[in-house]
Write a structure and sequence with these properties.
Thiol Ester Dehydrase, Chain A; 6 strands
Length: 139
């Protein structure tokens, strides 16, 4: 499957993540849980870039679901080019999408996935409206 940039999603950042020996499992490929770690690393880097690092007080982003489509097996050694997209801002949430490909095979999709991000009052454990500054990065 070739990588197709979704027209309805906004590319927010991309980064290269090295595949570590410890990412591998007994089957000889990157363990399925590590794909979610790659997604988390990518998403948190975007939050850092827009000065929105999640903290356990106040208001901030919380993931309410996550998914991954495993298309090809990633294997050590190598580097992953991870891309992060956002779409569909609502009152208090937006969709976050990620794609993974190997840097030595540009355009070949290895996995894609996403997560719904809800802006939350951490103490009250309730959603709150997306701040205008965050909404500006999504639209």
């Amino acid at each position: 499957m070739r990588l197709v940039v979704p027209a309805d999603k906004k590319l927010t950042n991309e980064m290269v993540i090295p595949i570590r020996w410890g990412d591998m499992d007994a089957m000889g490929h990157v363990n399925n849980t590590i794909y979610f770690r790659y997604f988390e690393t990518l998403r948190l880097e975007w939050f850092r870039q827009i000065d929105t690092v999640p903290v356990p007080v106040g208001c901030g982003p919380v993931i309410v679901n996550a998914f991954c489509n495993f298309i090809r097996q990633l294997e050590f050694p190598g580097d992953v080019l991870a891309r992060h997209f956002v779409a569909n801002p609502g009152r208090s949430s937006f969709e976050s999408y990620m794609t993974l490909e190997r840097t030595d095979q540009p355009g070949v999709l290895y996995a894609d996935g996403g997560a719904k991000v809800v802006w939350t009052d951490v103490k009250a454990q309730k959603s709150v409206p997306l701040p205008d500054a965050i909404r500006a990065h999504i639209t």
